[in-house]
Every structure is written in structure tokens, then in C-alpha cells.
């Protein structure tokens, strides 16, 4: 006699066709975002596909026997092992994530340093190229530029 009626989209509850029968109203909340929806789908698939292991069940008329404590200890040990594996897996994933993050930061910093040094080399090369074609009467100026360049290099090394 029970009838499943889905709730309307705008919150108006549909009533059963006959007033004498009772109805169960099934409410489905809209998902907050697509990631939550994907998670719900995955969880539902896991629940549907993966069987739940129930071992060493007692019959309905069975009392507490001498082996029940040992069964309890075994189940408890299995559960503790499962939780320990989950925790270990979480810690490993966390370490890998942190390592990758630090690695990306180091690579970015190294690339910035390399770019800075590359620019410096290009400037030095450009200055050297300009010095190769000096004006004939500028020998003293050429000597002064070399001294300035040496001073700049010593400052950069510090």
C-alpha cells in the first residue's frame, strides 16, 4: 500500500492519488557542485559493486560460545590493520604532494636564476661585440670600459 512519490523541483510535495493510501516522499537534494556529484556517483558505484564482507556470523539461536572472543580479536586486528594501511597510504600521498610542490618551487627558482644569468651573459656578449668595432681614437675609453666591467663582475659575485 506504500507509494513512493518524488518531491517536486520547487519544494511542492506531491500527494498520493488516493487519500487512504500512505506515501513515502523521496527527497533528492540538488548537488552543490560537479565534484560532489562525481563523488556521489563514485560512492554509489562502490557501494553497489563491492560486496560487504561479513564473516563468522552467528545464527539467530546461537548464544555466546567459547570462540566468540577469538573471532572478535581477529575482526578487531583486521580492522586495525586496514586503518593502519589507510593512514600509511594517506601519509605517503601527503609526502608526495609536498615533495612535488617543493620541487616545482625549486625548479621555478632555478629557472629564474638561469634566466637572470643568461641575460647577464647576453649583455656581456653585446658589450664585447660593441668593443670589437671601436672608433680609431677611443683606445683609452676601451680600457676604462674593461675596468668597469671587472668591477661589475666582482659586485655580482658577492
From TrEMBL:
Q: Where is the composition biased (Acidic residues)?
A: 145-158
> Origin, by domain of life?
Eukaryota
Q: Which Pfam families match?
A: DUF1168 (PF06658)
Write out the ranges of the annotated region (Disordered): 53-158
Coiled coil (residue ranges): none
Which molecular function terms from Gene Ontology are attached?
double-stranded RNA binding; protein kinase binding; protein kinase inhibitor activity
Start-end of Basic residues biased regions? 115-131
Q: Where is the composition biased (Basic and acidic residues)?
A: 77-114
Q: Quote the cellular component terms of the Gene Ontology held in the record.
A: nucleolus
What InterPro entries does the record point to? Prkrip1
Q: Mind telling me what this protein is named?
A: PRKR-interacting protein 1
Give the organism the record lists. Answer: Genlisea aurea
Q: What is the lineage of its organism?
A: Eukaryota, Viridiplantae, Streptophyta, Embryophyta, Tracheophyta
